[in-house]
Input
Amino acid sequence: MTPSERKILHDDSGVGAALERMSREIVQFAGGTDRLVLVGIQRRGSDLAERLCRMIAEAEGATVPLGVMDITLYRDDLQTIGPRPVVGETRLPVDLDDRWVMIVDDVLFTGRTIRAALDQLADFGRPARIGLSVLVDRGGRELPIQADIVGLKVDAQSSDRVDVLVAELDGRDAVELVHGGNT
Amino acid sequence: MTVPTLGKDLLGLEPLTKEQIQLVLDTAEPFKEVSERTIKKVPALRGKTIVNLFFEASTRTRISFEFAEKRLSADTVNVVAAGSAVQKGETLVDTARNLEAMRIDMVVMRHPSSGAAKFLAERIPSNVINGGDGTHEHPTQALLDMLTIRDKFGRLDGLKVCICGDITHSRVARSNIWGLRKLGAEVAVCGPQSLMPGGIEGLGVTVFRRIEEAIEWADVLNILRLQLERMKAGYIPSLREYYRVFGVTLERLEQAPHDLLILHPGPMNRGVEIDSRVADGPHSVILDQVTNGVAVRMAVLYLLAGGRPELAEAAKGSGREVEE
Output
């Protein structure tokens, strides 16, 4: 992959502003922080959820429980892919019954990851409501799934790849488009 | 990211690389959590049919495999030699081919003959997992032993592990020696001369004739079950004599320069190879081994199931979101 094929769509200030706005919208969505739980999808969704959690704590003075979920074992393509993907950690710190669960992920594309996440959440409890927050919505859905809160909208072809970079894993925050990267 | 694969079968630890063994141990970590959930089940192996084919008595291993299979949502069938067509003289390959004709995906097999798992794996397209073959290997037992040791020390590299007891007839000893050595542990064996195979040093292990020396040297003791039928065959004079000379007792452990981690693959003969006060003591991880056994077997099943590389390309084109 040559660098010229990679285009920076949003830098750290763009990502930061989007997350700030998302954190306010999440609290509005849940009608406060009382029953709210954030659940990040491994791996970058969990870093973003942690940051949203800190922002909410600063603005609201309330600590919102934070969970992480790896959806690998619930994927619908496990029979066909190889080698087996590495399974990450799943840790949900509170009982989800009657909570407002906000799923946090980096990119919403086909919707298959979220479908798997919903199946997995159902095995952990019965939340009063489940919402979805994504930093980037890039279109291209293959399932009837939409986000409640979207940080940034990106217009991408199905052959493009949209990468979200986070400082925790990648050393910097950015949203980048890789032309022809999804092959 | 390049991830090593396990291939079609798990026949032993001898043919595996260090990276493959590490892959299984690392994959077992997230599976521990699945067994702690209220709903102890994930859909990863939904639609897979697994046959547990046991030609030799087993309680722990068979139940552990069955839990692992069910927690991954596979459908399972248990076949035990007694009462099956095997007793009527059917050959191993015929049994397997008949099972295959019913469209199975994986076979977990325990068999009294060394090499039986390999023999079967070469003749059927299903994944074969060796659940213990003769005196050859018992790979999942060694993997769960290694995971349990790694849990306590955070590493295997540089640790001193001594396997005690009947080394000659032990597939657990062989698999442990292969696996631990590949991951950088120092391995020793200790037991009566009559139960020590000739040329065992060739596997790169130290041999201790006295249990006191082993205890002084080791960080970890993996104490094997003394199979009681060995006494009838004249390998040891008596059980009391064995306990007096080779029994891992509290008094002996108290002489050690530091605490030793105590493993035993079960079932235990209390007062023969191990003192009850040791088996139930603070440094015993014998029940952790049982818990880890389910996680390790889930990891092996998960890694072997599906994962057909020729289908990977097609799946990539369908717009997967997970790129890692």
Remarks:
- The first strand of chain A starts at residue 6 and ends at 10.
- Strands of chain A lie at 6-10, 36-41, 66-69, 100-108, 129-137, 149-153, 161-165, 174-178.
- The radius of gyration of chain A is 16 Å.
- Chain A has a mean pLDDT of 93.
